[in-house]
Amino acid sequence: MEKWKIIAFLLSIFLTSCFHDLDEAGAFHSKYNANERFEMSQEWNASHPFQVILMPDSEYSVLYCGDTHIGTYREFSIVLDAAKSPSTAALVVAGDISRGHTESYDTLETLMNTVDSVNWFFTPGNHDLYFGGWDEYYPRFGASSYYFVVSTPAGNDLFIILDSGSGTLGNLQLNWLSEVLESFHPSVRHITIATHLNFFKDGFGLTSGFPMEEANVVLDLCARYEIDYIIGGHDHGRNESAIGNTNFIIMDQCHDEESNSSYLEIKYNAVSCNHLFHAIPE
Question: What's the predicted TM-score (pTM) here?
Answer without folding.
Answer: 0.89
